[in-house]
Design brief:
This protein is of the alpha/beta class and 314 residues long. It is built from 14 helices and eleven strands. Helix 10 crosses helix 12 and helix 13 crosses helix 14.
Length: 314
């Protein structure tokens, strides 16, 4: 990372964090880089895939590597918003109500199988993810810093799932999939140590202070006017295309550029190039788009390729 003008000891730790993560989650270097870029950009991450491919392991591992306070919420059909946010309980001795924070008051929150909960329970995350605060009984309470939500969800065709509403999907900066490991990596998994034990043994590579410093450095990564123009053209294309019910919003555009800056930082650069935009666009943009027929999810890789092929780099 010698070419980075913002070079610091913290930046050098990113490679160490990725190496440590890659020793546990085998053969998923790009997905791990995307997940870390999402957190560097102060975004929330949605991991959509089949059960058993390592979604929950990845969330636990990131919390360990970054030294963050971790809480897990298992989303089920009978989960209530109070189970997520917390509840005020009357204390007879003090003749007053006392707020008992829920698991949402943690630095990294794993919302496991989020689409198995009803929309009412899912909505408990909306304010928290956008404003990093919650309002209970008319009182607004700030959430810890940093604050990240990593949600996992099973494919929508599986029994007992509720589709995430568009407003909820838009709160996630990125959506990624892990997929099955390659044959060589899967044989190592079968013959090797249990991943859960490896995660429990993993110590922090970065501290929350290091992470906060890196997040500030992301904001200092430079995006030149031609890069801004290219990003804007991508947004305009999705709005004009007859393939989509509606295009990407300004918030999606801001998120796309912020994620590209984090991608550039991970690449050792203090400036964004078009390849950074292209690298993060599939994960940032496609889950925010709806096809004109409004049926089913769009194929992430195919739609991203369609958009990128239609908008040339000036």
């Amino acid at each position: 990372m010698a070419q980075l003008n913002l070079k610091s000891a913290r930046v050098n730790l990113l490679d160490a964090a990725l190496d440590a993560a890659g020793a546990v989650i085998l053969g998923k270097e790009r997905e791990l880089r995307l997940a870390l870029a999402c957190l560097l950009a102060r975004g929330h991450l949605l991991i959509e895939d089949l059960p058993g491919v390592g979604k929950t392991t990845l969330a636990h591992l990131l919390a360990r590597l970054l030294g963050l306070q971790f809480a897990r919420i298992q989303f089920t059909s009978d989960l209530l918003p109070a189970d997520v946010v917390g509840v005020s309980v009357y204390e007879r001795g003090k003749e007053s109500f006392r707020f008992h924070p829920g698991p949402l008051f943690s630095q990294l929150v794993l919302a496991d199988e989020i689409n198995r909960a009803t929309p009412k329970a899912q909505s408990a995350l909306l304010e928290a993810m956008e404003e990093r605060q919650v309002t209970v009984d008319g009182e607004t309470r700030p959430l810890p810093e940093p604050f990240f939500v990593i949600a996992t969800q099973n494919p929508a065709y599986q029994v007992g799932t509720f589709p995430l509403p568009e407003s909820q999907l838009d709160r996630f900066l990125m959506r990624i999939r892990l997929g099955y490991p390659a044959a060589a990596q899967e044989k190592i998994l079968l013959a090797g140590e249990e991943r859960r034990l490896m995660v429990e043994r993993q110590g922090p590579v970065l501290s929350p202070a290091d992470l906060a410093g890196l997040q500030r450095q992301v904001t200092e990564v430079h995006a030149a006017p031609p890069v801004i123009d290219y990003t804007h053209e991508l947004l305009l294309f999705t709005r004009r295309s007859e393939r989509f019910l509606h295009g990407l919003s300004p918030r999606a555009g801001i998120g796309l550029l912020r994620a590209a800056k984090a991608w550039a930082l991970l690449g050792g650069r203090a400036y964004v190039i078009p390849e950074d935009i292209q690298g993060v666009l599939p994960s940032v943009a496609v889950h925010r788009l709806v096809g004109v027929d409004g049926v089913g999810r769009l194929d992430q890789d195919e739609v991203a390729a369609f958009i990128l092929c239609a908008v040339p780099v000036a």
